[in-house]
Amino acid sequence: GIDQTFTTAACPAQIPTATSLAATAVTATSATLNGTINANGAATTVSFAYGATAAYGSTAAATPTSLPANALGTTVSAAIGGLSCATS
């Protein structure tokens, strides 16, 4: 018979990965959260989760908030305020 050709679907993207970096500009009630993101082939929306317990409880949108699928090692940050004095 006649040969037929076909193309398989693209492989699914890997899950984006994040690396937390040290907070900067830390004051008694505010700080800047920092990290790097590898999108790993998937368009990505970035935010930070933070709080005084392991349950966190608060989120802050990162800058930049949206990253393209080809983003690798992109530095992101978020300034947060309203923190309690002398807490970790």
Please describe what this structure looks like.
The radius of gyration is 19 Å and the shape is elongated. The protein is mainly β and 88 residues long. The chain has one domain (19-80). Strands 1-2-5 form a three-stranded antiparallel sheet, with no helix packed on it. The mean pLDDT is 94. The protein contains no helices and five strands.
Task: Determine the strand fraction and express it as a percent band.
Answer: over 45%
Q: How many runs of DSSP E, i.e. beta strands?
A: 5
What's the total helix number? Answer: 0
**Topology as H/E string?**
EEEEE
What distance separates the N and C termini? 72 Å
Biggest sheet features: 3 strands, antiparallel
Report mean pLDDT, rounded to a whole number.
94
User: Which assembly state applies to the chains in this document?
Assistant: single chain
How many domains? The number is 1
Q: What structural class is derived from the secondary structure elements? A: mainly beta
User: Roughly how much helix do the residues carry, as a percent range?
Assistant: under 10%
Side by side, the strands of the main sheet go: 1-2-5
- Uncertain regions: pLDDT < 50 for 5+ in a row? none
Shape: elongated
The Rg value, from CA coordinates, equals 19 Å
In short:
By secondary structure, the protein is mainly beta. The protein has strands at residues 17-24, 31-38, 44-50, 58-67, 74-80.
